[in-house]
Amino acid sequence: MAYRVDISKRALAEIDRELTWMQERSGLMADNWYDELLTALGSLEEMPNRCPIAPETHAFLIEIRHLLFGEGKLQHRIIFGVSVDERSGEGVVTIYRVRNSSQRNLPGLEILGEYDDDE
């Protein structure tokens, strides 16, 4: 089953912020990171449930999963949920957040961007 990947506004803003930070330091680093991000996002179109359950899942009625990509200080987590569109029956992966893996886990509704989080 192929899944549609939807990216939340909050996750897009986080991606943009990371890219801006990296481009200020190295265009090549930013390009490589972005390529890794696109590859990781594309991989979620097939078998997203292969990814482990995220620690944040305890705060929700649905499973929240995460996918790590990148290496070292540039390793990030894609935090997402997997569902089925009730109208079309299509599988959907919703990307809630994209965060550096060194950042703390998100408590409660912060995963949905309900609160500001710059840590």
Q: Could you explain the architecture of this structure?
A:
- The chain has 119 residues and is an alpha+beta fold.
- It has a single domain, classed as RelE-like (YaeB-like fold, 2-Layer Sandwich).
- The chain has helices spanning 9-25, 27-43, and strands at 3-7, 64-69, 76-84, 91-100.
- A 4-stranded mixed beta sheet has the order 1-4-3-2.
- A hairpin with a 6-residue loop joins β3 (76-84) and β4.
- α1 runs antiparallel to α2.
- The radius of gyration is 14 Å and the shape is globular.
- Mean pLDDT is 89; it is low at 115-119.
Provide the helix percentage: 25-40%
CATH architecture: 2-Layer Sandwich
Strand order of the largest sheet: 1-4-3-2
Mean pLDDT: 89
Sheet of most strands: 4 strands, mixed
The end-to-end span amounts to: 36 Å
Q: Indicate the radius of gyration in whole angstroms.
A: 14 Å
Poorly predicted ranges (pLDDT <50, ≥5 residues)?
Answer: 115-119
**CATH fold-level assignment:** YaeB-like fold
